[in-house]
Amino acid sequence: MSSQIKKQPLLKKISRGLTVGSVITGSTFFHGPPVLALGLTKFVKKSRKVDETNIQITNSWLSVNNWLIDHVLPHLKWDISIDDDLELSMQGRYLMTCNHQSWVDTTVNQYFGLTRMPLTRFFTKWELIFIPFIGPAFKILGFPMMKRHSKEQIAANPELKTRDLEESRKACEQLLSQPFTLLNYLEGTRFTPEKHAKQQSPYKHLLKAKAGGLALALNILGDKIDALVDMTIVYPDGAPGYGDFWLGDVNRIAVNLRKINIPTWVLAGNYEDDAAYRERFQHWVDELWAEKDQLIERMKQQYQTTQA
Known about the structure:
By secondary structure, this protein is of the alpha/beta class. The chain is built from ten helices and eight strands. The protein has one domain (76-307): 3-Layer(aba) Sandwich (Glycerol-3-phosphate (1)-acyltransferase). It starts with 9 loop residues before the first helix and ends with a helix. Residues 94-236 form the Phospholipid/glycerol acyltransferase domain.
């Protein structure tokens, strides 16, 4: 984490850490059991009312986290901008892309989205289902959980590729019964200078974008969503760790939301089987990523100018 950040006194950090840890743990044990208990009823009979109730409980849990941010981290300054052509609603259906630098990114997304957008889900690995509390909660709340197979496994059994795609389709289609925000970190991993150098990324602030996940989501949901939203997160003093954030070592966070216009041809192609379409789609994503890289540079320069 950048040394530009003024570290908090040790005693204050310990007190803050104990407060945050106690409140989040207590809130999790208060909100978690009802979600799991209601979720079990879905094995008997699916109910939209149960789904809505679980989302309300989850949003209550998130509101506790946001209260902590506002009251235990009062020095944290937010700069949130939403482009004029983007209208957000709690009843909307959105696909969202975002740059990825830290585990804090998800907390930023939740802080921003709680009162502006439906509950954010993201693709998770099926193996997480075995993590106590967390895995079952992801499944109950409708997070798409994927059984992904390696290239070697698919080469040995080509039917696995079709099975993976079908499971992806079902996971996305399940979201359509309610408002949703489906998040995709196109870089596929968190940005680090080491990964950036190894990739020889053409961007200054981003890793290369992996287009396959977005292509799949647009193929399944593209004509049913209200907008494709691009979130850009900038930490002017350096990307923090999760502990840095909750212990009060982050002073500023900037967030920009913009609407991405989806060309007609994007919804009419087949990414898996059409090589020409796949190349065109990747080029389109690369252009969006180049625009995003320039946006990050402008946002960073704005803060550098402010501090000069």
